[in-house]
Amino acid sequence: MDLLHKKISLFFIFLAISFLIFLWGNKKHYCRVNVFFSPNNIPYIEMNIQGNPYLIGMDLGSSFDLSLRKAVLDALYKTPYEFSKNQDLGGNTWYAISYRISDVKVGDQKFKDIVVAELDESEAKKVIIFPEGEMGEESDTRQERAGFIGMPLFEKTNLLLDFSQAAAIFIEDKKGLKEAGYHLDTFTKVPFQRKSSGIILKAKTDFGDIRLLLDTGCTVSFIRASLGAHRFNNMVFILGDRDFGAMYLYPFGISPNINDFDGILGMDFLCKHIIYIDQEEQAIYIGDHPKSDERS
Asked: What is the span of the domain harbouring residue 65?
């Protein structure tokens, strides 16, 4: 009888192990979420915070995990974190209190122990949207955005941006890339430096070597005004070992107190390419959108 019990126990253990192997083999290694665009081409995704959905702008140039409007932040369970000094591109400084929150999801991707700051209402709608590099009012007709997701949150996972397909994809590993239908064979690899301001890329231009901050919160790409007196149609734009050809780099009055970068690589470039950010390799991969016949 004892032998029979052992055989039955071993059988059920075998079934349990087989089931776990089956689940692991069928686990998705990526999470795809829809991207919405404002009239000024700023990307948004839906984020679930403590059980409630919010429309959040994607801002890879922000130094906080999350920046939320006061009305949204007041409704959350949170614990105080720190009082920090912040600076915008023009050199203007302000202080903001930040908090820690939990229970944050984007699609099936979960995030824990998130640092969130209160978004200054006067800055809430300001983005760089005009070719002249001016600050303009950003608006969205569907609903008022609750805030921004910043680079520190995206650093917790690999991220693929395919704005032509209105998609942002959180990638666990290279297997996840293939499962999502992307292959890096034809992509250009560009190493980056991780600074407090975000991801910094080195580019070769007609001006020489410059450093650009990767930023989905700017609709155009620009450089310090001190590098060019007026709009500049740059004829050479090399990232990694690829020359992407002629590209406008607009002048903007970046504060001389900002030393991490010389300009911004904005949505005008990012919408034309597929961007994969590999956090472990500290490199981005830049690919071209497939032609319509290649997608089918």
From this structure: 30-174
CA 109 to chain centre: 14
Paired sense of beta strands 208-214 and 263-265, if any: parallel
Give yes or no: residues 201 and 112 share one domain.
Answer: no
Q: What is the pLDDT of residues 30-86, one digit of tens each?
A: 899 999 998 888 899 999 999 999 999 999 988 889 999 888 999 999 999 988 777
Quick one: which H or E segment has residue 7?
Answer: helix 2-25
CB 73 within 8 A of CB 98: no
Query: 287 φ, ψ to 5°?
Result: -125, 165
How far are the Cα atoms of 47, 79, 97, 134, 154 from residue 100, in angstroms, in the given order? 16, 5, 11, 33, 16
pTM score of the predicted model: 0.84
Question: Residues 249-295: pLDDT tens digits?
Answer: 888 888 888 999 999 999 999 999 999 999 999 999 999 988 754 54
Q: In terms of domains, do 153 and 278 share one?
A: no
Q: Tally Cβ neighbours within 10 Å of residue 76.
A: 16
**Would strands 114-118 and 66-68 be described as parallel, antiparallel, or unpaired?**
parallel
How many domains in the chain? 2
Q: Evaluate whether 118 touches 96 at the Cβ level (below 8 Å).
A: yes
CATH code: domain of residue 227: 2.40.70.10
